[in-house]
Specification:
single chain, mainly alpha, MetI-like fold, 2 domains, 0% strand
């Protein structure tokens, strides 16, 4: 009789514990879902605001002029609303930055992942990632006061404000992002792939370039896309070092304005809310979002295609 009562008591305790775990798991799942939905709803809210404000802008400016005009002077008396100068400045500085960041970041990642000792890797990587914590305004003044004078010694005709110095410094700024994500991707490549390569007589360099890099290509693509997005969205460096003059040129030696620099310029001004000049920043922001989306789609397509081939 006592044994039966004890068994029933144990069953009640077990059921109570099981019910408690189910409730706890459901609460945790709900919190995780809510956290994920916050990101989704935030993105949707940004898209809705951009589309709403941009639609009011395009009621006054034709889409054809916006996409084809090579002059961007929305704050002048003779207003022109061609987005091409801002797009050219954004793409030029981004390309210069990627020319620096992609090879340098990849080389650093290969060295830290395949050649550096454990102590060296654990020392260098935090220092490298610490560069990402430096305020971008510091990088901007570094480009203006250090990089530009150095470039002017090599190219005396280089103006004080130019996209070349801004792009180079942006490249240095995003090297930690590219190197850190790339190194994590390479270290996630299974050890047996390296051992198989060594067994076939390959050197460490051959293994790194022909086995590890292809095996980590999806992670490398993510690192490159992260770097592109960071370069496209950079504001303070280009606002300080590249000048604020919207010129339709792809020559990095010239000064120019980027989309983000123009948004900052107008946001800090005294334009009344609802004016066409104020609404132009949302049209520019919409173009910036589309550029970032295009780069992400290209990166995703390349990653999927490489996985199928590999």
């Amino acid at each position: 009789m006592v044994s039966t009562a004890a068994t029933q008591s144990n069953d009640l305790v077990s059921r109570s514990g099981l019910r408690y775990r189910k409730i706890r798991d459901r609460i945790i799942e709900t919190l995780l879902l809510a956290a994920g939905l916050v990101a989704v709803f935030t993105t949707l809210a940004i898209v809705v605001i951009l589309l709403t404000e941009s639609s009011a802008f395009f009621e006054h400016v034709s889409l054809k002029d916006f996409l084809t005009d090579t002059m961007w002077t929305p704050l002048f008396a003779d207003a022109h609303y061609g987005i091409l100068p801002l797009v050219a400045g954004t793409l030029t500085t981004t390309i210069v930055a990627l020319i620096v960041a992609v090879p340098v970041g990849t080389i650093i990642a290969i060295y830290l992942s395949e050649f550096a000792s454990h102590r060296l890797r654990e020392t260098v990587k935090p220092i490298l990632e610490l560069l990402g914590a430096v305020p971008t305004v510091v990088y901007g003044y570094f480009a203006l006061t250090a990089v530009t004078p150095l470039l002017q010694k090599l190219m005396p005709e280089l103006p004080g404000f130019n996209m070349l110095s801004a792009g180079l410094v942006i490249g240095l700024m995003i090297v930690p992002y590219v190197a850190s994500v790339s190194e994590d991707a390479m270290r996630s490549v299974p050890r047996y792939m390296r051992e198989g390569s060594y067994a076939m007589g390959a050197t460490r360099l051959q293994t790194a370039l022909r086995v590890v890099v292809p095996g980590a290509f999806s992670g490398l693509a993510a690192a490159f896309i992260l770097g592109i997005s960071r370069a496209v969205g950079e504001t303070m460096v280009v606002a300080i070092a590249a000048g604020m003059q919207p010129n339709f040129t792809f020559d990095p030696r010239e000064q120019a304005a980027t989309i983000t620099a123009y948004i900052v310029q107008v946001s800090l001004g005294d334009l009344p809310h609802g004016s066409i000049g104020y609404q132009s920043i949302f049209a520019a922001g919409l173009v910036l979002m589309l550029i970032t989306l295009i780069f992400n789609v290209i990166g995703f397509s390349l990653t999927r295609k490489f996985r199928e081939a590999y």
